[in-house]
Amino acid sequence: GGFEDSSTFGVRRLHAGRGEGIGRFLWSSRRARGETRPGIAVALSPCILRRSRVAMRRFATAHTLSAPLEKVLAFYSSPVALQRLTPPPVAVRAVRCEPLGERSLAEFDLCVPFTSIGVRWLARHSGFTSEKGMDGTLVKYAFVDKMELGPLASWRHLHEFSRTKCGGTRVADSIDYSHLPGVRGFPTRVLFNYASLSVLFGWRALISRVLLRSSRGSS
């Protein structure tokens, strides 16, 4: 009882913006109840405070594909692109997928590996920009998808595509994201961290090369 009351109160104090001196307050509260040991809650209270703060994080990566820019954009704009780009054992079930464009929506369920748990994710696309060369060919293209509903506190993903000198395509991804505070953010800290995102985008680079190469060979 004492541990649950103390730790819960500690999180509430932080959320209300009054986290200072929480360990001292919890110790006083326990003494008032006739308890003589500070207990685990007081020892963990600084950890609770640190973990509960919402900190923005950034992940950035890039890879190069031999396929031309127009073909890469068509591949990424496909309604089934997300399923193709998501590594096993994660499964994606599309709920709504509007044609890629300004303020278009993509809604899907992410199935947690080795469970029957599905997490709903709603993303809106915006910030579309493009740049053409002197000959009128497309040389750069970019857009943003931003999470409007999902498991994290925030998620903003900038997609950038640019034509290389050899006629291929450079794909760059930059993600700014944050976790929910406290214990509510624990699942996403496990599933969305630097290591897991590195695996995700490593898979994306690999599968993009394989699928674009095979489609080029069949055309």
Which characteristics define this entry?
disordered N terminus, 219 residues, single chain, alpha+beta, globular, 7-stranded antiparallel sheet
Largest sheet properties:
7 strands, antiparallel
Percent helix range: 25-40%
Structural class by SSE content: alpha+beta
Mean pLDDT: 81
Figure out the total of helices.
7
3D shape: globular
How many β-strand runs? Answer: 7
| N- to C-terminal distance | 68 Å
Order of helices and strands: HHHEHHEEEEEEHH
Question: Which helices and strands appear, and what pairs or packs with what?
Answer:
Layout: H1 2-15, H2 22-32, H3 39-52, E1 57-65, H4 69-77, H5 81-85, E2 91-97, E3 105-111, E4 118-132, E5 138-149, E6 154-163, E7 169-178, H6 186-191, H7 194-218
Antiparallel strand pairs: 1-7, 2-3, 3-4, 4-5, 5-6, 6-7
Can you describe what's shown?
The protein is α+β, with helices and mostly antiparallel strands and 219 residues long. It has 7 helices and 7 strands; from the N terminus they run αααβααββββββαα. It has a 7-stranded antiparallel β-sheet with strand order 1-7-6-5-4-3-2. It is globular, with a radius of gyration of 23 Å.
Short description:
The chain is of the alpha+beta class.
